[in-house]
Design brief:
The complex is a heterodimer of chains A (87) and B (238). With 87 residues, chain A is mainly β. Chain A contains one helix and eight strands, in the order E-H-E-E-E-E-E-E-E. Chain A has one domain. Chain A has one helix at 10-13; strands spanning 4-5, 25-28, 34-36, 41-45, 48-52, 59-66, 69-73, 77-81. Classes of the chains: A mainly beta (87), B alpha/beta (238).
């Protein structure tokens, strides 16, 4: 199946994250590469959606809806970083 | 409890106007309650619900400029698509469906950005790039910009007349059939074409089907463009 990219996951993940996920810079737990989630490879399937590292193909984040639950698994991301205005 | 409508909330949009763009694509102007504007390049999610309760959800890029107010989406009808034929062939003014958004702060361009921009579209990947060009025109921006569009044939070029007066150099390539008197490119975007056409050293936005986006991005990197300066958005079917 052809993949999309993290831009396509922005709507679904906006239900979970208060900040825009496409600009979130993720550090991959598999290879240490950092980059915006907009550039992650996104695979959508009936079971849910998987975001993979564009450098090493490791699973960064998985989310699925079913059984009255929204589940997010993100052990493939060590850090999520957003630009932030000083308080 | 807050009464503020958030981008994340689904709400009912009404089709305010619908206009054909090509034989297979139409632009819909939407009335969305609580719409609070968008940035050029952003998209929204739409959700259609059938009478039996079956739901289908898609993302569509916003074609209008931020200055236009109401969001406009351009939908190209995909063969065997589940949702796109409804928008192009069936939808009428006054029809309603659900939307949420706008989304995406990464594949966006603001008129305050001054580095040169190279925009590269595969087919209807032109839609978010058109929002950027309309925004650039409306803002009176003098940021150098150039557009490369890959289309199967002349009938597939969105916004063809408006592109003639959008204020930037537009390069077209036809991959299936060119007009009879055409003297320009007649092939898929390749490395030699990018070497001739692309603006290097600024920022590049590429939008189109996945293979198009990845091929073009890989060629640009091979030609020496910095990966961090290339922003891409892939779209799928439906």
């Amino acid at each position: 199946m052809d993949h999309l990219d993290g831009n396509a996951a922005a709507g679904e993940l906006s239900e979970v994250f208060a900040l825009d996920v496409t600009t979130a810079v993720a550090t991959c737990a598999g290879c240490g590469t950092t980059g915006p989630l907009a550039q992650a490879m996104v695979y959508e399937a009936g079971m849910g959606t998987v975001l993979r590292c564009p450098a090493c193909d490791s699973v960064l984040l998985r989310y699925a809806r079913g059984g009255g639950q929204l589940r997010v698994e993100m052990r493939g991301v060590t850090v999520l970083r957003w630009r932030s205005e000083p308080r | 409890m807050s009464s503020v409508i958030r981008a994340t909330d689904w709400r009912v949009a009404t089709v305010a106007a619908i206009a054909p763009e090509t034989p297979r694509a139409a632009t819909l102007t939407l009335d969305v309650p609580g719409w609070d504007g968008h940035r050029a390049g952003q998209h929204l999610d739409v959700r259609l619900t059938a009478e039996d309760g079956y739901r289908a959800q898609r993302s569509y890029s916003i074609a209008s400029a931020p200055e236009d107010g109401r969001p406009m989406i351009t939908v190209e009808e995909l063969f065997d698509g589940e949702v796109s034929p409804w928008f192009v062939q069936v939808a009428r003014e006054g029809d309603e469906f659900e939307v949420r958004g706008p989304f995406g702060g990464w594949f966006v361009w603001d008129a305050g950005d001054t580095e040169p921009i190279m925009l590269i579209a595969g087919g209807s990947g032109l839609v978010p790039l058109m929002s950027m060009l309309r925004h650039r025109r409306n803002a009176g921006s003098e940021t150098p910009a150039k557009l490369l569009v890959s289309a199967r044939e002349a009938d597939d070029v969105l916004y063809a007349r408006e592109l003639e007066r959008i204020g930037v150099e537009v390069v077209l390539t036809y991959t299936r059939r060119a007009p009879r008197d055409w003297t320009g490119y007649t092939r898929r975007v390749d490395r030699a074409m990018l070497q001739e056409v692309a603006l290097f050293g600024g920022r590049t936005y590429i939008c189109g089907p996945t293979t198009f986006v990845e091929t073009v991005a890989n060629h640009l990197v091979a030609l020496g463009e910095a990966p961090a300066q290339i922003r891409t958005e892939r779209f799928g079917g439906g």
